[in-house]
Structure formats: C-alpha cells, structure tokens
Design goal:
mainly alpha; about 70% helix
C-alpha cells in the first residue's frame, strides 16, 4: 500500500480505519506514516493526523521513537487537524520527563490562545493536568488560566475545565 496515495483517495472514517488497520503495530509502516504526518503537504498531513491518532490508540508504543518530533511539531504553522490529533494522542500517553517542559510550554500556549478550537484547548488542559501531577508548581498557573477563560467558554470547555480543576486540586 502506498500510504500517500491512500491518504489522498478520500477523507473518511472508513479510509482512516482501513489505513490504520494496514499499519497495525508495524513500526516501519508507522515510520512512513509519521514522515507524511510531519511533512509539508497540507492535505497529506491533515489526513495522516487522523490515522496517527487511530494507530496510537491501539499501539501507543509506536510513538516512542517519535515523541520529540511530535511535540516539537506543535510549534510549527500546522493544520488544526494536526494540532488536534497530536494533543489528543499526547493526553493518553506518558510524556517522558525530558519532554515535560516543552510539552507544558506548548500546551499553556495552546490553552491561552484565543484562536484555538475547543478540542485543542480541552486536550491541552488534560495534558497539563497530567504534567501538574509530576510538576505541582505549575498547578496555580493552570488554575488561573482555566478560571480566566471559564466564564466565556463553551459547554465543552466548561465541562473539561471543571474536571481538570477538580483533578489538580488533589495534587
């Protein structure tokens, strides 16, 4: 299967699942996918993002060799689907200690931004809550940032914010 061609065929859940099933737990195939995901072709990175999310859900170990570049890619000018799927993946894995500072800095930026969609902010909150468990000094900064946005947030934002605030109050 030529991944790039398959990604460009159609943007559908069925196609995403078909490609993710083809990759399975194969690290070589996943490496090819990550090359497309981290590339410069707008449509390819967008479509690869959803496949990366599906693969990481079933085989999170495939991300181990890609965490640095995955996190640092969030600093680039990338499609919102790439951001959303990256933070979705990161909220469900253990971020290594050497990347905690970088991940926290990026997620604080995403959460503070007025331009980011609710999903990106919600996933960023969850990542930051997990980081606060290891780095409790960040708890107050996260709490202030969430509380400042709470009155203006959507129902989804408020729901996640309340859960995160309760979670970090226990640290």
């Amino acid at each position: 299967m030529e991944l790039k061609i398959e990604l460009l065929k159609e943007h559908s859940k069925e196609n995403t699942i078909r490609i993710a099933d083809y990759i399975g737990g194969d690290s070589k195939k996943f490496n090819q996918l990550m090359s497309l995901f981290l590339g410069k072709e707008y449509r390819v990175t967008q479509r690869a993002a959803w496949v990366v999310s599906h693969c990481a859900e079933k085989h999170p170990e495939l991300l181990n060799n890609h965490l640095d570049e995955l996190i640092l890619n969030l600093r680039n000018n990338i499609h919102v689907a790439v951001k959303r799927n990256t933070v979705r993946v990161l909220q469900n894995i253990e971020i290594p200690d050497h990347l905690l500072g970088e991940a926290a800095d990026i997620c604080f930026g995403l959460l503070a931004s007025k331009d980011e969609p609710i999903a990106v902010k919600a996933f960023s909150m969850t990542i930051l809550a997990k980081i606060c468990k290891k780095e409790p000094d960040l708890k107050n900064e996260l709490q202030i940032l969430i509380e400042d946005q709470l009155p203006y947030g959507s129902a989804g934002f408020k729901s996640r914010a309340k859960k995160v605030l309760l979670q970090i109050s226990k640290y």
